[in-house]
Amino acid sequence: MLIGRREEADALLACLRSDKAHxxxxxxxxxxxxxxxxxxxxxxxxxxxxxGLAKATQRRQLEEFAEALRLYGLxxxxxxxxxxxxxxxxxxxxxxxxxxxxVVFLDELPWMDTRRSEFVSALESxxxxxxxxxxxxxxxxxGSATSWLVGNLFxxxxxxxxxxxxxxxxxxxxxxxxxxxxxxxxxxxxxxxLLEAYMIFGGVPYYLDLLEPRFSLAQNVGRVCFAAGGQLxxxxxxLYASLFQHSERHVQVVRAIAEKRKGLTRAELIKATKLPNxxxxxxxxxxxxxxxxxxxxxPFNRKERGTLYQLVDFFTLFHLTFIENSAPDTDFWLxxxxxxxxxxxxxxSFELVCQAHLPQxxxxxxxxxxxxxxxxxxxxxxxxxxxIDLVIERADNVINLCEMKYSPDxxxxxxSLDKTMRYRRAAFIEETRTRKAxxxxxxxxxxxxxxxxxxxxxxxxxxxxxxx
Length: 468
Description:
Elements: H1 6-17, E1 22-28, H2 34-42, E2 46-51, H3 58-71, H4 83-96, E3 102-107, H5 109-112, H6 119-129, E4 137-142, H7 146-154, E5 166-170, H8 175-184, H9 191-201, H10 205-208, H11 217-226, H12 235-243, H13 247-258, H14 266-273, H15 279-290, E6 294-297, E7 308-311, H16 314-323, H17 332-336, H18 340-355, H19 358-364, E8 372-378, E9 387-394, E10 398-404, H20 415-432, E11 437-444, E12 459-462, H21 463-467
Parallel strand pairs: 1-4, 1-5, 2-3, 3-4, 10-11, 11-12
Antiparallel strand pairs: 6-7, 8-9, 9-10
Helix pairs in contact: 1-2, 3-4, 4-6, 9-16, 9-18, 12-13
C-alpha cells in the first residue's frame, strides 16, 4: 500500500498512458522508497527489471542482467560480452513483447556503471538509437547515488543531454505521512513520540518499518540503533560508502557541520576540516546537497555571501550525536530519554523538523498561496549577537521572524525569552532597514500558554495540527 506519493504515482501513470516513449529518472535519498514506488505503480507492466549490484565487477553485473533477461522471457539468453550486447538483447526481448507499453526498470543504475564499462555509451545507444523512436517503451531508472544521475543524465553534455523526459524526486515522508505509515503498521505513538521518531529517523520509510508495535519508541530505538546487532547500528558507514566514491571526504564534511547546528559557511568549513578550497570541495558539497544530507541556508537579503551549509539528514545527526560513541546497550535510549541532555537535543532537532515542513507551516499560517522566501539572519553589529534561524519574507509586505521551541506541553514564554525575542526583532529592523511589517511567529508542538508575555507574538503554528 502506498503512503503519500500521490503526485509521483500520477506522474508514472501519465508516462505509462502516453502515446510516446518516456525516459523517467527517479531520484531520492537511499532507503526513501524509490524501488517500492516503481514496483507498486508499474510492477504489473514490467517487460524487464534488473538491478545493479553494489561494488560488483562488470562481469558480475552482466551475469545478473542476463539472468533477468532469462526470467522475463529469453530462457536461452547468454551472458553478454559487454553492455552494448546487453542492450541489444534487451531490444530483442521488447520486440517479442505483446504489451502495448513495455516498462523497462533499471534499478540502482549507478552501480551498473563500473570502471571502463562504457555503460553510459551503451545506454545512450539503446535510447537514442532505438527506444526513443518507439511509442511502446517506458524506461524507468533510479539510484540512490543522485550525484551520478545528475552528472551522467541530467547534466550530460553528450548524447544523453536532455534525454530524460521526466524526473521524479522522492522526498522522505512528512510528519502526517509518518503517522499514516505507522498506523498502517499498527504502531501507536503519541504526538511527542512521533516528533521524536522524526528527529531520529527523519521520515525515511525503511527506518520506520523497523519499528515493532509491541515496543515503545524508546525500546524500538534501543533495539534497532543501540543493540549489538541492531539493524541501524552500522547504517551510517554503509550509507555513505554506498553513495559516494571517496566517501571519507563526505563524512569529514558532515562531521564538521554536525558540530555547529546552525551551520557553517564555506570558509568556516574549510577551517574546521582543513580541506583545500577548490573544485574537489565544491564537488563534495554539491553531492551531499543533491543526496539530501546537507542544505544551503541563504542569509536574508543576500544571494551567496554568507551562505550556511546545514546538516539536514536526521539519521546522520543522530548517529554522530549518540550511536557512534555508545557501547552496545539495548536499554541506552530508555535511560537517556529521561535525562536532562535529552531536552537539549530535542530542542535543537525540533528546529530541523520545522524547517523540513516549511510548506505545511506556511499553510497553517494561512499564507500558502503567498509568494515567500525563506532564509536565515545573523546580526553583524549587535552586541550581544543575534541570530534568527527562519525568516519568512512575504510578498504581502510582511516578514515573519520564527522562533521554534520544543515543549512536551503548552509552551510558556517567560520574561527572559520575551526580552530576547524583542531584542532580536529590534536588531533585525535596525540592521536590515526593512519597511515591511515584522511579525514574531512562535512554532511549538502543542501551542502557546497564555500569560503576560504571550501578546508579543503575532502568530503561532502548532505542529500537532500539521500531523492530524
